[in-house]
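Bug #77: duplicate submission created two jobs. Keeping one. Sequence:
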Amino acid sequence: MATTDKASSRDRLLDATAELSYRDGVGIGIEALCRQAGVSKRSMYQLFDSKDAMLAASLERRAAWYEAQLAHPHPETATPRERILHVFEQVTKAAADPDYHGCPYLAVLVELKDPGHPASVVARGVKDRLTRTFRTEAERGGARDPELLARQLVLVFDGASARAGAKVENLADGLAVTTVTALMDAAGMA
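Kept job's structure:
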C-alpha cells in the first residue's frame, strides 16, 4: 500500500508542478506546489532530490502528450505540408483558450535562462524534436533547404505561441497558418 501512496503522491506533485509552473512560472515556491498536491515537503524530498528535479520530471512526463497534440491524426495519409500545417492549427486552437500561456517548454527555457538546468535540458529536447520533425517533413515535401525551413517554422511556432500566450496576439485570424504557408511556398515545398 505504501508504494501506491508514494506513486500517487508523486503523480500529484508532478501534476501540481505542471499546472502551477505553467500558470505562475517556474519560480513558484515548494510550499505552494506541496499544498496544491496535498503532499508534505518531507514527502516531496523523499520523492525528488530538488524542486528542479521535480520540474524536469513534470516536463518529461508531459512531453509525449504535448507532442501527440501537435501530431497529425492521420500521419499515414497526410502530406508533409498538411502535417506541418496541423501543428500551427493546433497552436491556433490552443491559443483561443483563456488559460493559454504559450508553449510550456519555451516558457521554461526563457524563464530559467540556464541551459544546464535539468528542466531546460528536457525543454530543449522537446524543442529539438519539433525542429527535427519540421526538417523531416520539409525534406519529404521537397523544400530546397529543409534545415532553414525547419528553423523558420520553429521561429514562427515559438513566436506565435509566446505572443498568443502573452495575450498580445490573437491567432484566430489564421496569422500563424498563413505565415507558415508562405514560408513553405517560398521554400518550394509541395
